[in-house]
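Lecture notes, unit on protein representations.

Consider one protein chain, 549 amino acids long.
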Amino acid sequence: MQIAGGIGLFLLGMILMTDGIKSLAGETLRQALLRLAGHPLRAFASGMVVTMVVQSSSATTVTVIGFVSAGLLSFSQAVGVVIGASLGTTGTSWLVSVVGLKFSLGAYALPLITSGALLRLLGRGAWPAVGLPIAGFGLILVGIETLQTGMSGLTEDFQISGRPAGNLFDHLVLMFVGVLLTFVTQSSSAAMATILTALHTDSINFDQAALLVIGASIGTTITSVLAAIGGNVSAKRTALAHVVFNLTAGLIAVVALPWFLDLIGWAQQRWGLPTGAISLAAFHTAFIGLGVVIFLPLLKPFSDAIERLLPETDTPLIRHLDDTVLSVPEVALEATRRALQETAAELFDATRRRLSWGNRGYHESGLAQVREALRKVQRFLSRIHHIPTDRPMSRSHVAQIHVLDHLLRLESSLQPPRAQLESLSDPRLKAVVSQTVELLRLAAAGLRDEEQQDDWPVNVERAAKDLAEMRKHDRPLVLQATALGEWDPEHSLTLLDAIRWLDRLGYHTWRICHYLQGDRNDVALASTPHELAAIGFADGDDAIEQPHE
């Protein structure tokens, strides 16, 4: 019962400490993870550092799965972070062996728990978040001390340390026990604390502890597998990469166990490495580090192999819409932003094809895919948890609703009367059609990051304004020519309808890009009807009926 209670206290302490650190600096850590995860070495380093800070490889891995599902990280970057997290989690072994077991800190743990609880209950501002990790660390120390007491009592009645590790079957049995221990506790840190404490109290010998540690390292991948269940292909790829890495490192450690033990013995004699728990922590770091040395140079081919093994099944437009990220509104909103961005680019291309008579059949095919994507984005966006208006991401939420509104209006306006569509071939509309086509091309290229200029949204806005000015300029000329009998009245009205239709396409295209780019840069997103009128999108009796911004 003491062993079970010690594991429970340790788990509770880890949960409090991890939650407290994430509450205190979680957003900073997430932003650092995104900023640093560019080059494979930087992705590896960021995964290792973040895991050592939050003391939970599971938290890092689950976060990465959410990031890669939402498109914030590429798959190869995610693999680098996961490998770094696997090495970073060995920091728990050092924390337990150096601080928890080497020094008797149980007496100091109670004041830590008390002060942390008081800060959590009575503190203001950031102090409650500071209290959680303090109380959590105190509970970890109490849990380790309780584990030690329970293990000491266990050795009096149950002694297996004298039994050798045996053959390969015995090795696999001990590894399975380590996997099972991690699965039951749902924490490799708790499993490691139990194993280290058992070794420290001589309940097991070093060879047995080493095999248990290998099993615990493999078992920690269960959390990522559970997190990927029901997720998209990117989430499943990340979980598979985590499993393959830890399983390969574990199997190498089993095969090379005699050499590892000789290396530990040499370090004890040559460098004075302390025996027992600290040596076991060194072994844990050594075999995971060997896996890093093997996998990190092969990160790109390893990632490519995983991608071939699990090919993409969803349409590219909605591949980021993963239900597993709905629990984190910020990540879910990034997923919808990327889906809206790719859907908008495809819709702009479909609209350009609409203006080209040669590819009408292909246009209809692409448009059907856009309609399905818009339907799924709309449903996904409605399931994102409410975000208070005082949080920055609330503006992003509003911006995406604007984008969805304009996309739906643009899609519905792609079916003008046949007479308007036929009038687009009139030479007198050549300049207006060319301007619209260029506007759509520029918008699609910018959203796909194919436009190298940073000010492409400004260029889209300028092109849309020019289109509106062309409508304002051409309308009185057409009416005058019709009154003088130079143009057929019926055909003239059809041309005016076509010009207004093109202007409407340009307007929606501009507003979509405006809100998507504003969402990305987290800037003010509102435009008043007065501002719209000032740039030519509303001009008295001839105003196009536009949605109010």
